[in-house]
Design a protein that fits this description.
disordered C terminus; 2 domains; six-stranded antiparallel β-sheet; 3 helices
């Protein structure tokens, strides 16, 4: 079919020839198939951005806790992000916590979405949502990671914050891809401070 393409293009009315359009369509669909992943990410990728830290007080039964939370936002990102219908929801979003200098055998910890008590949640475009990162029981010096739901660990490295391991990094994923990471410094009085160059830390 393609051997006649050069001759067809030289015809005075080549644009009205169905065979020429069949060739163009085949080429277009072929290129679309090759680059569909890149096109999807360029146009449709959610993007998690930091907003601010929050410290809240809460009772569970008779026990008092301080919760150290962080607010993030699903910001628009991509070539057509200024168009309202290209604002993309992060579906099945998950957040994992790791350290700048993790201890040996440390595994990334899944964190809890505030008020959802779950591993995953959808984040609509331009919506701010809360993450439970740490909690501290009154009278206890330890800061406990906020695992989602009934998940958890008895390993001290996976249960409590280790300040000797350095700052923390939150990594975000939806059902298809990574959608951002945030580097945070912890302060027991002010909560978490966002560090803008966090994406450079591995």
């Amino acid at each position: 079919m393609y051997r006649n393409f050069h001759l067809l293009s030289q015809q005075s009315h080549w644009y009205s020839d169905p065979q020429w359009w069949a060739i163009v369509t085949a080429l277009f669909l072929g290129l679309l198939g090759m680059f569909q992943g890149w096109i999807r990410e360029l146009i449709f990728k959610p993007n998690i951005q930091p907003v601010e830290s929050k410290i809240t007080s809460q009772y569970i039964g008779t026990q008092h806790y301080l919760y150290y939370r962080f607010i993030i936002k699903n910001s628009r990102k991509g070539l057509f992000s200024w168009l309202p219908w290209f604002r993309i929801q992060a579906k099945g979003a998950r957040v994992l916590l790791t350290y700048r200098n993790p201890p040996d055998n440390f595994i990334p910890i899944p964190l809890n979405w505030t008020h959802f008590n779950s591993l995953e949640r959808n984040i609509p475009p331009d919506e701010e949502v809360y993450i439970d990162i740490l909690r501290q029981k009154t009278g206890d010096d330890n800061y406990e990671f906020c695992w989602p739901g009934v998940m958890g660990s008895t390993d001290p490295d996976l249960k409590y914050l280790n300040s000797q391991a350095g700052d923390i990094r939150l990594e975000f994923f939806d059902q298809n891809q990574s959608i951002g990471d945030i580097h945070l410094k912890f302060d027991k009085l002010q909560g978490f401070k966002y560090v803008p160059d966090g994406s450079k830390i591995i």
